[in-house]
Amino acid sequence: MSKGTSLHVQFMKKNIYLKRLCLLLLVVLCTILLFFLQYRYDNKYHFPGIQGEQGILDLRSDRQPLSVLTYGWEIYPQKLIAPGEFNGQKPHFIYLGQYGGFEAGDKNGNPHGCATYRLTILLPPEVNEYALELPEIYSASRIWVNGRPVSILGDVTSVNPSPSIRTGMITFSAAGKAELVVQAADTRHYYSGMVYPPAFGSTDAVSDLISLRFLRTCIMVIASLTIGILYLFIGIKTGGERRRMILFSLVCLFFTMHVMYPLFHLFGAGYWTYYLEDLSFYLFLTAICALHCSLCGIKGRPQRFAVFVCAAAALASLVVPALLLNGSLTAMLLYSVFLDGFKLVLFSWLITTAFFNREQTETMRSLLLAGLCTIAVALLVQAAAPVFEPVRFGWQTENAGFLFILLLAGGLWFDTIRAYAERTALAENMRLMKGQFALQEENYRILSKSIEETRKMRHDLRHHITAIKELTNQKQYDALEDYLEGYENSSEQTEWPVLCDNHAANAVLTYYRQRALQKQIPLSIHVSLPAELKLEAWKLGVLLGNLLENAFEASEKLPQELRSVKIYAKIAKGNLLITVRNHWNGEFTVLEDRIYSTKHEGAGIGLSSVRSMAEANGGQFYLTPDKDEFEVSLVLWKQV
Q1: Where does the Sensor histidine kinase NatK-like C-terminal domain start and stop, copy by copy (predicted)?
Q2: Is 517 helix (H, G, I), strand (E, B) or coil?
């Protein structure tokens, strides 16, 4: 490689990496902006309206149909207090989600056990119908509104309460005041009590909010599951792309399992849904890692190590919360830090290897890089901004994961279409090459036979000359005349007529004349072309070969007595005119200016190739499908 070429290659590499860096920065900035907007405008902790203080939320002058009960809650750790029994009790004041359990600010406090929450809402004096969202409360709960029990899930008085977690909506009538009292108990889960602020307001407003979340979850579940099943079938039916497609279908399947937990909670569920949620998320990351290695050509030990680490994290997410935390707040925090660190290291490696990857097309690399960056930013934002819970549009990691699936689904789809088109084109080229080889083989056979005939004629010519000399010497002129006449009519004088002065056209016509005899297809040839044309010989051969091949295939579908193929080619005023007519059965489709094959599904290549070549050489292409006869014509201007 010359020095100039080497410098050019280095410049191209730098240019590619610069483009990827710009894409990386653009995706990061757009994702941060999007999540910032969600953090600001779709966050229960920033929800507009009046907030509670010191156990009281005053909504008497508030006209908003929806509020989020985040701030001002009273909490009584390790106590179960019924309505009317709060006199003399000293509360702590918190916002929901401030703590993950019942510790209430005590570093040495027990996050498990039980607690009572209370919030008094001041309402307008007239009687109205209200709705309270029932969030996930860990793990058994009882709820009272104005001293009346409205929800009982599990037994909060049990030493080891069975988990009974359900989401939904509670409706009640109230005027002037609504006292909410929530008792909760938990002994095993890594969250305890009320950690998610519930929505409160008119029945329609709360119902619409819950329905919107349900719709979003259904869209994600159905779309990702459908995409996964589709690519699983594609993977089973394809060869070289099978591993990649199956890995992507696993990505979709694990993501579906991860985001469908709200559907389980609507009907009530135990701890197993949370184990499934965590396990499926880390299996989702494991499948992403395996797919990433396949896309980027990472093999051997690096691939096995990366997938093993991800699988180990998935196993840890199942085993550690269930068996090893033992209610220790410090252990829970260390476990959370470990998982955040693992995700940070994993996505740093994924993004770096995707950035320097050379295996895929630039489009696929860009989509992979964008999807990975989106998930990485979502994980960072979710870890850096813990005081967040979505009101309507879900968690950042779920949205980023869904976007990742859509991006890769689009990229793999276009890659699959491109690969299919290339394979189809390759198959057609192989067919044409086989036809050209058969043509050359037939011409070689004819040429060999002609040479053999010529050799025999030259061998026999000596005997003829000897006989003619002898008859001449003997002056037997009548016998000489009879001899010469017999020689002239001899079958040994086999002629191989030239069909056309143009060698390329003559070779193709000779081949198809022999095929016509073999297939019993009447072939009429009216071709008069000069030896030299501006059109390259191989292009002329491809044009004639495709046209005749198409006509022969159409004729073979007909009974023998109906078969007919006619070809006309000539130069008129310097322009090349070619027309092929054949009888046919009427099977023909043109849609959106594309010619569709009757041999297979999808666009045909033979006539499409003729059309493309004619237009590429400044010519015109015409189709005339009559009732009994199919005609293809083309004009190439100024060919002599």
Answers
A1: 537-635
A2: helix
Choose from 380-389, 447-456, 620-629 the range with maximum mean pLDDT.
620-629
Contact between 49 and 61 (Cβ < 8 Å): no
Tell me the per-residue pLDDT of 277-326, one tens digit each, with 9 for 90 and over.
889 999 999 999 998 888 888 888 888 999 999 999 889 888 877 665 55
CA–chain centroid gap for 115, Å, is 48
How many CB atoms are located within 10 Å of the residue 622 CB?
A: 12
Phi, psi of 624 (to 5 degrees): -130, 85
176 backbone φψ class: left, alpha, beta (φ>0; ψ -120 to 50): left
Distances (CA, A) of 278 to 286, 320, 322: 12, 11, 12
**Which residues are paired to 624 by β-bridges?**
631
Nearest to 405 by CA among 640, 179, 223: 223
Angle, in degrees to the nearest 10, between helices 537-556 and 396-473:
100
Can you tell me the distance from the alpha carbon of 166 to that of 163, in angstroms, rounded to the nearest whole number? Answer: 10
Q: Which residues contact 452 (CB under 8 A, 6 or more apart)?
A: none
Tokens of 313: 């994290």
What are the chain's domains? Answer: 3-41+213-414 (1.20.1070), 56-197 (2.60.120.260), 498-640 (3.30.565.10)
What DSSP string describes 599-630?
A: SSSSB-SHHHHHHHHHHHTT-EEEEEE-SSEE
Spatial neighbors of 321 by CB under 8 A, at least 6 apart, are 190, 274, 275, 278, 335
Residues 607 and 585 sit within 8 Å (Cβ to Cβ)? no
Cα separation, 379 vs 375, in Å, equals: 6
Q: What is the DSSP letter of 247?
A: H
Work out the burial of residue 185: count CB atoms within 10 Å of its CB; fewer than 13 is exposed, 13-18 middle, 19 or more buried: buried
Which one-letter amino acid corresponds to residue 140? A
DSSP 45: G
- For CA atoms 552, 557, 558, 560, the dihedral sign is positive
Token code pair at residue 270: 């135990």
d(CA 297, CA 310): 18
Task: Encode burial over 214-227: b for 16+ CB neighbours within 10 A, e otherwise.
Answer: eebbeebbebbbeb
What 3-state DSSP class applies to 590? strand
| Chain segment 588-629, per-residue pLDDT in tens | 554 434 444 454 443 345 677 788 888 888 889 988 888 788
Q: What is the distance of C-alpha 482 from the center of its chain?
A: 84
* Cα first-last separation, the chain: 42
Orientation of helix 203-237 relative to helix 396-473, angle to 10°: 30
Instruction: Quickly tell me which residue has 């189809």 as its tokens.
Output: 424
Neighbours of 299 (CB within 10 A): 10
Beta strands per DSSP E along 403-554: 523-528
Q: Name the DSSP letter for residue 190.
A: S
User: Cα separation of 389 and 192, whole Å?
Assistant: 17
CA distance 53 to 71: 7
Q: What is the DSSP letter of 46?
A: G
Q: Is the dihedral of CA 590, 591, 593, 594 positive or negative?
A: negative
Count of residues for the chain?
640
CA distance 20 to 351: 11
Half-sphere exposure of 162 (CA within 13 A, CB side): 6
Closest CA to 180 of 88, 116, 136: 116
Q: What is the mean pLDDT of residues 415-426?
A: 74
Helical ranges in 260-395 per DSSP H: 261-266, 272-296, 300-319, 329-355, 362-384
